[in-house]
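#lab-general

N.A. 3:47 PM
ok so I finally got the sequence cleaned up, no stray characters, all 82 residues accounted for. can someone with queue access submit it? mine expired

B.Y. 3:52 PM
send it over

N.A. 3:53 PM
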Amino acid sequence: MSENDMTAPTNRYADWPLHHLLFVKLRDDGGGAANLAQGVADLHGISVDELKAYCRQAGDEWLARDGVLTEINQPVYDWARR
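B.Y. 4:20 PM
back already:
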């Protein structure tokens, strides 16, 4: 392993699917999904309705995998289903 490999910054989200990344942006950036949605959608060149669809997809996948959403994920999923 070279020194660059050891010191290069890593992006822990680099391999995540887009719908998971978008969900986590809304979840983790503070202010609530409804307040952040337009900015996140604009940043990614999508509509808020498309953003909601991506977030529903992520939430549906996590529900299928885990049977329940965590308390931190539930508000984003609820917003996406409105």
